[in-house]
Write a structure and sequence with these properties.
The complex is a heterodimer.
Chain A (H helix, E strand, L loop, with lengths): L7 E10 L5 H10 L12 E10 L2 E10 L6 H4 L8 E7 L3 H17 L9 E7 L7 H4 L1 H11 L3 E4 L8 H24 L7 H6 L10
Parallel strand pairs in A: 1-3, 1-4, 4-5, 5-6
Antiparallel strand pairs in A: 2-3
Chain B lengths: L6 E4 L4 H6 L8 H5 E4 L10 H54 L3 H4 L3 H8 L4 H12 L7 H24 L1 H7 L2 H5 L2 H8 L16 H14 L9 H11 L2 H12 L2 H7 L3 H18 L1 H9 L5 H9 L8 H14 L1 H14 L1 H5 L3 H9 L7 H9 L4 E2 L2 E2 H17 L9
Antiparallel strand pairs in B: 1-2, 3-4
Helix pairs in contact in B: 6-18, 7-8, 7-11, 10-11, 11-12, 11-13, 12-13, 15-16, 15-23, 18-19, 19-22
């Protein structure tokens, strides 16, 4: 990946989660600004590129939209390589897809670590929030607790259909990716690694955890 | 009134005027659509010179319009002729398939003449029949057997929906992986995302239940495999061309082919062999593009997974995909990789200008205007021969030396 000195940054971002939770829709909304209820199922992996202006720099996000069926695990996990961030998506109308979130997160963390040994920044997306609120996501405090326990840097209720919180979630992820990149460079420079446990554990970036 | 000569008004040429004269196909339309009216009385009279000039201008305009329309009519005639020629050749082919080839299938299927006719594309009315004959029924599945598996599937769905309505999450979590994956939910989710633009497989569409039945019956027939994404596209294409039970029989036999078995079992090691064999012929056929892909770290799995799992039915326009299936039924698995190379050859110049992400995007979403004749020309120029070895030879060599390699657990992303 690129260093701070470059005027252009390129990040590989994974979009994972159970089948049919709306990964492709979220990407289409984010990159192409549209929505269709008629997307075809993703087989293997699909790609998209989002270009952002970020503090006078160009940030290119390479989005890897990975098929959700568990069966493809062995095959698609090689695609985690070199990713700098991830969205894990679930469907608020399907509780089972939320239960799978911890499985996806564990899987991600076990397959992928940054050069400084830390996990990649991951944002949790509670998608299809336009179709009625889930009991679980209704409880913001509980969700924040869930995020902290499972190492998510933030969570958002999103709707690709109604364009709710997609940009906000992406900005949150990019911010954390840039922060973790700085962190990696610092730990490379000095031998003495200052304990960052506090900062890491807290993870509470006020812009990510929206006030309830 | 001698001065009230020509006052021209143009009628719209299309629309009603043209519609009324449909039968006068090759007669220029605009001259007949010109209405000559007297010059309005409130305007001063024209000079003789002006009248003369207007008359000439008018005649020029009429002549120009005539020329244009004659040209259009000729073009239309040519197009009609081409269409008639195609229709004739399809109906001719249909007669040949129905009267000559199908009644003598075993004797004729391998002949040069039939193979050539086959390459031209099967007439839609015999397509399903030829596919099912070519794929065969090694598994000896009968329509009765299909009914048995279908009723089992229906029973399972009934009990599934009963338990899940009581406690959705727990019943789901408690079930084994295969059970969960063969569940109604998973198939249901995918069916609505199978050829969504056709609006026939979605809920309420005419083939929704049919697709559901075929997929459900398969998960009962092969619980060890269950439902795997990509199957819905294959079953849908078969349903479009065959009766229900026949579609199931062909579906099960098609998935039983070695290449399809490797993919739908998600046998990663074996899939890597297929990708490696593909790369041998890729390098042979398109060396420049091959090295461009290597430099960009673009491995074949990134696009082949989608293409092979759906037999191109998701990525190619449906009519083109059907022709690819025709050739697949004729030539077997190697034709799938030949098709892939044909696509790469067709777009070689564009792809050579692209970087990783753009190539990956392009190949997972091919242009919608892709034409079958251009693809088939590219495929005809693609030869599955490498240093005198054919597909099977290359593949079996890879299978033999593979044992050591696979120990290293090479992943497609790290392989270069």
């Amino acid at each position: 990946m690129q260093t701070n000195h470059h005027k252009e940054r390129l990040y590989k971002i994974l979009v994972i989660g159970d089948l049919g939770v709306g990964k492709t829709s979220i990407i289409k909304r984010y990159v192409h600004h549209n929505f269709s209820p008629n997307y075809r199922a993703t087989i293997g992996v699909d790609f998209a590129l989002k270009v952002l202006n970020w503090d006078q720099e160009t940030v290119r996000l390479q989005l890897w939209d990975i098929a959700g069926q568990e069966r493809f695990g062995n095959m698609t996990r090689v695609y985690y390589r070199e990713a700098m961030g991830a969205f894990i998506v679930f469907d608020v109308t399907r509780p089972a897809s939320f239960e799978a979130v911890t499985k996806w997160k564990e899987d991600l963390d076990s397959k992928l670590t940054l050069t400084n040994g830390k996990h990649v920044a991951t944002v949790l997306l509670a998608n299809k929030c336009d179709q009625g609120r889930d009991v679980l996501t209704n409880n913001g405090i509980k969700m924040e607790q869930f995020c902290q326990e499972n190492g998510f840097v933030g969570w958002y209720e999103t709707s690709a259909k109604e364009n709710i919180n997609i940009d906000e979630a992406a900005n949150c992820l990019v911010k954390h990716i840039i922060a973790s990149e700085k962190d990696m460079l610092q730990s490379e420079v000095s031998d003495t690694i200052t304990p960052q446990l506090e900062k890491d554990k807290g993870g509470t970036c006020s812009s990510c955890f929206r006030s309830q | 009134m001698s001065h009230s000569t020509l006052y021209l008004r143009f009628m719209p040429i299309g629309g009603a005027a043209a519609g009324r004269r449909k039968n006068l196909e090759f007669e220029p339309l605009s001259t007949t659509a010109l209405i000559l009216e007297d010059r309005p009385a409130n305007l001063p009279a024209k000079s003789e010179e002006e009248t003369q000039r207007h008359k000439m201008e008018y005649e020029e305009m009429v002549a120009g319009a005539k020329r244009r329309e004659l040209k259009d009519a000729q073009k239309k005639k040519r197009q009609m002729k081409e269409r008639h020629r195609q229709e004739d050749s399809i109906s001719h082919a249909m007669v040949v398939w129905n009267k000559e080839i199908l009644p003598n299938w075993d004797a004729m299927k391998g002949t040069r003449r039939v193979r050539e006719l086959w390459w031209q594309g099967l007439p839609p009315s015999v397509r399903g029949r030829v596919w099912s004959l070519a794929i065969g029924n090694e598994l000896n599945i009968t329509p009765e057997l299909y009914e048995i598996f279908l009723s089992r599937a229906k029973e399972k769905w009934r009990s599934y929906s009963e338990t899940s309505s009581v406690n959705d999450s727990e019943s789901d979590g408690g079930a084994s992986l295969a059970d969960r994956e063969s569940s109604l939910d998973l198939i249901k989710l995918d069916i609505s995302r199978t050829f969504p633009s056709l609006f026939i497989f979605q809920k309420g569409g005419p083939y929704h239940d049919l697709l559901h039945s075929v997929l459900g019956a398969y998960t009962c027939y092969r619980p060890d495999i269950g439902y795997v994404q990509g199957m819905s596209f294959i079953a849908a294409v078969l349903i479009l061309n065959l009766e229900e039970a026949e579609a199931f029989i062909t579906f099960a036999n098609l998935l039983n082919k070695p290449c399809q078995m490797a993919f739908f079992r998600v046998d990663h090691e074996l899939m890597l062999k297929y990708f490696a064999a593909f790369e041998v012929f890729f390098e042979e056929n398109l060396p420049r593009l091959f090295s461009h892909f290597q430099i960009n770290n673009l491995t074949p799995d990134l696009y082949l997974i989608d293409w092979i799992f759906t037999l191109y039915s998701k990525s190619l326009p449906l009519d083109v995909a059907c022709r690819v299936w025709d050739v697949f039924c004729r030539d077997g698995e190697e034709s799938l990789f030949r098709t892939g190379l044909g696509i790469l050859r067709l777009y070689e110049d564009v792809l050579l200008q692209m970087d990783f992400i753009h190539i990956a995007q392009f190949l997972t979403r091919l242009p919608e205007d892709l034409q079958s004749h251009t693809l088939f020309t590219a495929m005809a120029n693609t030869h599955i021969i490498s240093r005198n070895r054919r597909w099977n030879q290359v593949f079996s060599v890879l299978m033999k030396d593979g044992i050591k390699e696979t120990d290293k657990n090479t992943s497609p992303a790290t392989r270069s």
